[in-house]
Design a protein that fits this description.
162 residues, mainly alpha, Serine Threonine Protein Phosphatase 5, Tetratricopeptide repeat, 2 domains
């Protein structure tokens, strides 16, 4: 199986909640390509609950190898947010929206973070930007509000999203 197929398989497994198998697929790819940024990213996603310190290291390695990949920044920001490292998460999300201004998950997740922090005007600006970029994200304000209440950030596992 080629690297693209393995990455897609790992992403699908993560989306299905099968993080153990996803981690195994990522490790298989990393055995032959130890610095593959997407495999590092997906392995971080797969291990963020079971090995938070290892996941953070993997996120950082992936960012070092592919600093322009916005999905890594968004997922790492959500990881940091779940660890109550709000300032670091916000910084990563702001970097994402600056470097990839058309990347919808960057604006969406920044809006969730700001809404949870009670910074409603800023969250509304992010929601408007998200909606302008992707009107299909219907009910965005409700999602932002619900995420703030439930503290369940959107997880962008679109490893190849640009």
């Amino acid at each position: 199986m080629n690297s693209h197929a393995l990455l897609q398989q790992a992403a699908d497994l993560i989306q299905a909640g099968n993080v153990g198998d996803a981690a195994a697929v990522c490790r298989r790819l990393l055995a032959s390509q130890p610095e593959h940024p997407d495999a590092l990213h997906l392995l971080a996603m797969a291990t963020r609950s079971s090995d938070p310190q290892g996941a953070e290291r993997l996120f950082r390695e992936s960012l070092a190898r592919a600093p322009q990949q916005p999905s890594v920044r968004v997922n790492m920001a959500n990881f940091l947010r779940s660890s109550n490292r709000i300032a670091e998460a916000e910084s990563l999300l702001r970097q994402t929206t600056e470097m990839a201004p058309d990347f919808v998950p960057g604006w969406y997740n920044l809006g969730i973070l700001l809404r949870a922090a009670g910074r409603l005007d800023e969250a509304e600006t992010c929601a408007a930007r998200t909606n302008a970029l992707s009107p299909a994200w219907e009910g965005l304000l409700a999602l932002v509000a619900a995420a703030a209440v439930t503290s369940s950030p959107f997880t962008c596992c679109a490893w190849g999203a640009k």
